[in-house]
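A quick aside before the break. I want you to see a complete sequence-to-structure record at least once, exactly as it would be stored in a machine-readable document. Don't worry about memorizing anything.
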Amino acid sequence: MTSHADPDLDVEAVTSLVADTFRRIHRERMAGLPIVHPGLSVAVVGGQTWDGDWLGVLVTAWCLNLVLVPGPGSAREPGPFGSKLELDLPAGRFEFLSSEEDGLGRFAACSLVSPMHQFPDQATAIATAEEIMTALFRPEGAAAAEPPQGPALSRRDLLRGSFRR
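That is the input. The structure line, written in tokens, reads:
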């Protein structure tokens, strides 16, 4: 997986902050809502730096999102709540929506799956998030790494959910 390390960005700290923020949201705002999958919980998969920003897949009981948290001096600082931000990754261009949460600050999220009821369990949701992170850093149209696991995913396939087995 490609990573553009930034010594000023503490990947583990940001990963923990994202996870803690969404665990709090789960407890305080999402508990009991019908959109919540009772067998899933919050997890962050593949958190890493990408051109100085933090990027990872957020698994929750209500959504699976690609999340961007801007690093120090980022050129991709999310705008006001709900504004769009486009990010070019090796797999293609992805559209994110800006958001803000206490403790985390401004971040941007690209919704990949919502609701999460098609996932039978947490392990399947996490495996899917891992597959997404791998696919995001594979150039569009490039073959999958050995051993072959089927055709490479296009951005369209990724967003249509074709990554699920």
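Two observations worth writing down. The helical segments are 11-30, 122-136, 155-160. The longest helix spans residues 11-30. We'll return to this after the break.
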